Amino acid sequence: MSDHKPAGQFLDAAIDLLRRVRDEEADSIEAAGTLLADTVRGGGRLFAFGAGHSSLAAQDVVYRAGGLALMNLLAVPGVVGVDVMPATLGSALERVDGLASAVLDSSPLRAGDALVIISLSGRNALPVEMALNARALGVRVIGVTSVAYASETTSRHVSGTFLKDHCDIVLDSKIAVGDAELTLDTVPAPFAPASTVVTSALMQAMTATAAAVLADHGIEPPLLRSGNVDGGHEWNGRVLEQYRDRIFYRR
């Protein structure tokens, strides 16, 4: 039974979106998780990038209890979160040509690695250029984006293309353009964004798949445990030491 209060309406909308990605993106999620697992098996490193609020889903899979220890955050100064002052600077930096090239040139990314790029719209210069240049380096790219933006908005990259056009695998979050699930006659703008909920779920579904695929190949997935359970710190110390050459957030 649908709830007519805004809280219930938002949760219903989020649940509907999660059901859609479960049913419609299952093959892509499986392919993305398998790509991550194959990268680990081949000695490659894993990275995640997102700008602005898209960075939240990237950060959610880095150094995370229950997550893969090998997932590293590819950080771009000024666009990781709203801690940059003024916060509007982050939005402006996403549109700067050349920024992704500068970041990649100074990053540890190399051929054989995998990079997950999260961008809701996929239209700004930063994610498009990041995908283009990473693939040119021999990096496999997974894009997490709302494909609807490619048909309902215009690209801000000089090529006129979107993130989805430069990925080995695309996960479509199904988020509507504008990222707001609710409207009310008494409220002048649409509100209640669901992109973080859905994108984070896609990221966790993908990494869960990677862990299972590794196990299917007889490899213990490099998973972290919570530091708040007995033995967690010791477990994590072993995993971090075993894979220290592929983990960059502890240096």
UniProtKB/TrEMBL annotation:
UniProt-recorded Gene Ontology molecular function terms = carbohydrate derivative binding
Q: Which domain of life is it from?
A: Bacteria
- For this entry, list what GO says about its biological process: carbohydrate derivative metabolic process
Please report a single Pfam family linked to this protein.
SIS_2
**InterPro entries, sorted:** RpiR-like_SIS (IPR035472), SIS_dom (IPR001347), SIS_dom_sf (IPR046348), SIS_GmhA/DiaA_subfam (IPR050099), UPF0309 (IPR022951)
Stretches assigned to the SIS domain = 36-220
- Family to which the UniProt record says this protein belongs: Belongs to the UPF0309 family.
What name has this protein been given in UniProt? Answer: UPF0309 protein ACH3YB_27805
Could you tell me which species this protein originates from?
Answer: Streptomyces tendae
